[in-house]
Design goal:
Strand content: 15-25%
Shape: elongated
Number of strands: 10
Number of helices: 6
Length: about 210
């Protein structure tokens, strides 16, 4: 994890000098904070935007979480990543990306969790995405109300959904995630996972594949 932002307590006084005093207190924090936030992370060769039904940024965020979580694991169960469009708060402009850009993208301290669900819950996910008009997904597509796994295993009874603690607790009305059990509470911040993936790529991979077709 990069750093913890401690709340700054500044005594408030009614005198005129208070704003100058406050500025004296805050300036060193502001300067060191902007130095931290300007840390170079990666390069975007194009604009990365959030647009339903699907977009390069929605795909990148879901792929980043899926790849980072599964690249060193041998899965015996089909697995997908499901996030929420509402959780992506900003896009990336073409050019150099800094730590600050990742804080704007994902200001919340949500963590990554793995949920094992009965395979039938994939139908609930497809219905949900059809209703909302598109969410970030990886390793699957949703077409005509059906969820298709990129790596389908015949006869699989369960599926792993890699998501956030917020959604695992039925955030954004994803109540169907409660039908499973959390098998790995990673404690990793989604933002940190995205930063690690961006550093690994160096140049962000822009994938405009449409992963939701009504």
């Amino acid at each position: 994890s990069h750093f913890i932002i401690e709340p700054l307590r500044v005594p408030i006084t009614p005198q005129e000098e208070s704003s100058e005093k406050t500025e004296q207190y805050i300036k060193p924090y502001r300067d060191s904070m902007s130095a931290i936030m300007n840390e170079f992370i990666a390069v975007a060769d194009t604009n990365f935007l959030v647009q339903r039904p699907s977009s390069n940024l929605m795909n990148w965020v879901a792929d980043a979480v899926f790849i980072q979580e599964t690249q060193t694991v041998r899965l015996s169960t089909p697995a997908i990543c499901l996030l929420n469009t509402g959780g992506i708060r900003s896009g990336f402009n073409k050019g150099e990306l800094t730590l600050g850009d990742f804080y704007k993208l994902m200001p919340f301290d949500n963590t990554v969790v793995w949920i094992e669900l009965p395979i039938e819950v994939l139908d609930d996910i497809a219905k949900y995405i059809t209703k909302t008009g598109g969410e970030p997904v990886a390793n699957c597509t949703v077409e005509k109300g059906k969820l298709k796994l990129n790596s389908k295993r015949e006869g699989a009874k369960t599926c792993i959904v890699i998501t956030t603690d917020y959604l695992a607790n039925a955030g954004d009305k994803m109540d169907f995630l409660k039908k499973g059990k959390i098998i790995n509470n990673t404690g990793k911040l989604v933002r940190e996972v995205l930063i690690n993936h961006a550093k690994q790529e160096g140049n962000l991979v822009s994938n405009n594949e449409i992963r939701f077709k009504p």
